[in-house]
Design a protein that fits this description.
Blueprint lengths: L16 H6 L10 H20 L3 H19 L2 H5 L1 H8 L3 H78 L12 H9 L5 E5 L3 H6 L6 E2 L11 H7 L2 H8 L6 E5 L13 H10 L6 E3 L7
Parallel strand pairs: 1-2, 1-3, 3-4
Length: 297
């Protein structure tokens, strides 16, 4: 007796029971009833072998074909005249077994096809998510690369602007601040010089600004600043009292940025003052920028 396979073979003929049923169709032929009987016996034997081999799809197709051929034989005139004879050839229990096995396989295959469809959808979903993740990572890498390039360009432009500002100040015999930072004493001198238009932007929290601030300074609270933002984005987040002075930033000679403790060396990417400086440099309408006050000089 042939050994029975331990697990069903993978699905390979179709993706649904509906499609598989199309393979069970048999067209009537002009042949003898005996030939039909011989074909039926061969089909049943092949179906049994496939069942033992756990090839459920092929076994189902063959059992269904056997049932179809059996029904064709039953309709022939000579079968009705010699029923006992043909039944003995076909086997009294074969048709019953074929129907039972076909029904059993039908239920099994229906579940397997449904499971395969679910797996396929899940795999496709995972594939799409992985593809989307790769696209997002590539996009982020591009943004980081572009931002790094932009930062390099802005720093270079900023240095040129500072140099130009210093030269202009020398020509007018003014005492401009050192590039990148000034002391509180120099800031006071500039604020009292009527020939210098200056704006002080206070990047501390709004609460700290309200408790103490430099006279006529503009509050640009750290809550309104984040890496990569634009000047327009910051403007939308400003306190009402700061919005009108903010719009005048393009009319001044110098903009001084300050917080509690930062110095020039602290202007790292991601810090509020660095983000504010970058946002200002995106709109090149002032002659020079002084980044912050160095209180310890």
């Amino acid at each position: 007796m042939p050994a029975v396979a331990s697990v069903p073979k993978d699905l390979y003929l179709c993706t649904s029971l509906k499609d598989l049923n199309k393979k069970t169709e048999i067209k009537p032929e002009k042949t003898s009833t005996k030939s039909y009987v011989q074909s039926a016996l061969k089909i049943f034997k092949a179906a049994e072998e496939c069942r033992l081999d756990r090839d459920e799809e092929k076994a189902y197709v063959l059992y269904m074909k056997y049932v179809t051929v059996y029904n064709l034989i039953n309709k022939r005139p000579d079968f009705k005249q010699q029923q006992d004879y043909f039944h003995s050839l076909l086997g009294p229990s074969n048709i019953k077994k074929a129907i039972e096995e076909a029904e059993r396989l039908s239920e099994s295959l229906k579940l397997r096809y449904e499971e395969a469809e679910v797996r396929k959808k899940l795999e496709e979903k995972e594939r799409q998510e992985e593809l989307q993740l790769k696209k997002q990572e590539a996009k982020e890498d591009t943004k980081v690369s572009a931002k790094t390039s932009l930062e390099t360009s802005l720093d270079s432009k900023g240095k040129n602007q500072m140099t130009n500002g210093e030269k202009k100040g020398s020509a007018e015999k003014k005492d401009p601040p050192e590039t990148g930072g000034i002391t509180a004493e120099k800031l006071f001198t500039m604020m009292t010089d009527k020939n210098i238009k200056l704006m002080v932007m206070d990047a501390r929290s709004l609460k700290d600004y309200q408790e103490s601030c430099i006279i006529n300074s503009v509050s640009v609270p750290e809550e309104a600043i984040s890496p990569g933002v634009t000047a327009n984005w910051i403007e939308a987040k400003l306190p009402d009292a700061s919005k009108e002075p903010w719009k005048e930033r393009g009319q001044v000679n110098y903009i001084v940025l300050l917080d509690w403790f930062s110095s020039v060396k602290d202007l790292q990417l991601g810090t509020p003052l660095r983000s504010l400086k970058d946002a200002l440099f995106k709109v090149r309408r002032v002659q020079a920028y002084v980044f912050l006050i160095l209180s310890d000089q």
